[in-house]
Amino acid sequence: MRQLWNSIKLVMFGAVTAVVLAACGGSGGGGAATTISGVAAAGAPIIGSVTIKDSTTPTAQTKTVPIAADGKYTVDVTGLKAPYMVRADGYVGGNEYHLYSAGTSADVGGKINVTPLTDLIVSNIAGSIAKTYFDSGNFSNLTATQLTAQSDALKAKLLPVLQAVGVSSSIDLLRASFSTDHTGLDAALDVLKVTTDTTTGVATITNIITQQQMTSNITTGTYTGAITDTTGVATAATDIQLISAGFKTFSNLFATSLPSDTNPTLLALFDSATFMLEGQTLAAFLTEITTDKSMIGISFANISIQSMDANGNAVVAIDVMQNGKVVNDGPKPFHMIKKTDGKWYMQGDQYIANVNVEPVAEYRVSDTVTPIVTGLRLNIEDRGGKGITSAVVTGAGLPSTGVTIINNIAYHYFEIQGQNGGNLYSMTDTAIGAIADTEESYTIKLYIGTTLAATYTEKLKKRPYLKSELTTANFPTITSPTVAQVRAFTGGNTTVSWTLPTGLTNDWLSAQIADNAGNSAMFEASLLPTDTSKSFTLNPVTSTGQAFTITQGWLWLGAWDSYGRQLDTVIW
Question: Would you indicate the residue range of the signal peptide (predicted)?
């Protein structure tokens, strides 16, 4: 990711070159255009890459380029044979997208956008889902006439909504220039959601404001119904811009320093009466984020609307960015409410607890028998003190009855029942093989006693690492203290130092000491991306002031990869 800006500079240079060549036409000795550019977006810019595939047989040629932060891409098609298929791979708000588009020789020097709408256009031409068309390579007969006809057919079905957000009736959905700023065509992509049933071959387009739907039989390329109800659509387009501006204000407050938890600009972003994030009240949340130095430089990007109603309720998905990297490991809902003053206020995720299912691999330095363990960390934190006693997690790779996590009150964390401590559910490569590579969902049920308190769904961005994919070189290296020093620790000041493999980013550091009677003390800290050491004091005294004699201790150092998967090094 840190090399992305260099790539973007090259992309931008290519885009400028394309414009200059196009302006020259055929006169003045200018050469022919050799690039195709466009925007890859799905309600927000796609964070990822664009791949273009040509019609060369028997083996097609491909080129892949990064998508810039504003959704734009440019690819040089020199040496590639038209017509072309285009695929955008990446994430928006933690949700994974693989969208398709297409072009012909006439599009060289011009634009080919990649959106959910272009994906449907290509599917209707192919008579199959666009992925199958791309993978097969059987698109050498694709024509500009087909593309225009299907683009116009879809536009006709969506025209009332398109015009409601200011899009001209003459727009070309495949080739029009647009910006990912929640206006024009981008606003239409905010409002219109496309889902495809790969079994039935039916795509459904939903206006998320009115819930009106239409369908497309992609096998026959025919539509049923149209999106004609524009009630509230124009207002929604403006609302989406206001919501986006609110997150921008939040980002600006943390750009270079930490604001006070009483900062009026910060407080004005939230609805204090209804706010709840992972069980926390607004006051607790603000205290935490305004004292955590890892929040400096945090920003929110690619806000996409998941739902919005006429009563002023909305759910958005966001990408949390730190130093240019996405740090959320999957889609998280964030609720918003519009009040009578016309402003939108943040309400948090509305979860009663911190609930997280994340792919994790651990290098257990002290374990000479099974030093590397991989699986799912089933993390439950009753941060709001709701009295949650247990949780059951079900999903792919887990037992059919699920995995039960219980609240170990003595040690202040939830652990897997029947396991000797911890919340990492170790999995074999066979079990991990049952998990979809991306977008696998897990259900978490929270209980207070025997009463079901809440049910949530968590989605993985990427499956856990297979054990066969890992060696100790993939993990952070703790250079000090040594295993012997950890075991000999009796309390006091200490410093932990480490190095990271290429591709990993610092996440957190935790140290815990305990006795055999359930007394313990812990140090935890979020880490800055530039940290290579952390000094702290940890004494054998509980949070209630009870002194104890240390009989056991643990040290965890966590980092994450580009998919948000944890790779932790543990010493005990």
Answer: 1-22
Residue ending a domain, among 464, 499, 516, is 464
Instruction: For residue 220, tell me if it sits in a domain.
Output: no
Within a domain: 193: no
Q: Give the per-residue pLDDT at 329.
A: 60
Q: Distance from first CA to last CA of the chain, Å, rounded?
A: 33
Supply the DSSP symbol for 460: -
Can you give the residue range of the structural domain that contains 296? Answer: 234-348
Residue with tokens 């708000």: 93
Residues 390 and 479 in one domain: no
Residue type, 497: S
Strand partners, 35: 76
Q: Are 33 and 18 in contact (CB under 8 A)?
A: yes
pLDDT digits (tens, 9 = 90+) for 442-500: 999 999 999 999 999 999 989 999 999 999 999 999 999 999 999 999 999 999 999 99
Q: Residue 509 belongs to a domain with what CATH number?
A: 2.60.40
Give pairs for 478-487: CB < 8 Å, separation 24+.
Answer: 478/365, 478/555, 478/557, 478/569, 478/571, 481/555, 481/571, 483/365, 483/366, 483/571, 486/553, 486/554, 486/555, 486/571, 486/572, 487/553, 487/572
**Residues 6+ away with beta carbon under 8 Å from 35:** 14, 15, 17, 18, 74, 75, 76, 77, 108, 109
Which two tokens mark 213? 């739907």
Tens digit of each residue's pLDDT (9 = 90 or more) over 112-152: 999 999 999 999 999 999 999 999 999 999 999 999 999 99
d(CA 445, CA 353): 11
Are residues 452 and 536 located together in one domain of the fold?
no
Residue 145 phi, psi (nearest 5): -65, -45
521 beta partners: 513
The residue type at 63: K
Domain count of the fold of the chain: 4
Is residue 213 domain-resident?
A: no
* pLDDT the model gives residue 410: 59
- Each residue's pLDDT tens digit, 344-386: 999 999 999 999 999 999 999 988 888 999 999 999 999 999 9
Contacts 24+ apart (CB under 8 A), 449-458: 449/389, 453/352, 453/386, 453/388, 454/351, 454/352, 454/353, 456/351, 456/355, 458/330, 458/355, 458/356, 458/357
Task: Tell me, yes or no, whether 204 lies in a domain.
Answer: no
Q: What is the DSSP letter of 40?
A: B
The predicted model scores a pTM of 0.78
Spatial separation of the C-alpha atoms in residues 35 and 22, rounded to whole Å: 10
C-alpha 120: how far from chain center: 23
Residue 137 in tokens: 């390579």
Token couple for 390 = 């247990």
What are the backbone angles phi and psi of residue 558, rounded to the nearest 5°? -115, 145
